[in-house]
Design a protein that fits this description.
By secondary structure, the chain is an all-alpha fold. It contains 3 helices and no strands. It has one domain.
């Protein structure tokens, strides 16, 4: 995969992951009690996302991770006007 396509893909997944994380924070599922661990995990994922997108197994991994986020947030079931960032 060329660098431009990989960067576009990582931007897409970065935005999706952040959307779910922000929803979980706004809903109180992620709060100050677990904020440090979430912050470390989010930072690790987002800073390595460009490199991770180059892995052959990344699409399946990202899909699984997004499905698990969606199990908690149910963002895919919301009206598009309600999907805006919090």
């Amino acid at each position: 995969m060329n660098a431009e396509r990989r960067h576009a893909l990582s931007d897409f997944y970065r935005e999706e992951f952040l959307r779910h994380i922000e929803f979980l924070q706004a809903s109180g599922i992620l709060d100050d009690g677990n904020g440090e661990a979430v912050s470390r995990a989010r930072h690790a994922l987002l800073t390595r996302l460009d490199d991770l997108c180059a892995l052959a197994s990344f699409p399946a991994l990202a899909e699984t991770l997004l499905q698990r986020f969606d199990t908690l947030t149910r963002l895919s079931r919301l009206d598009p006007s309600q999907r805006q960032r919090h």
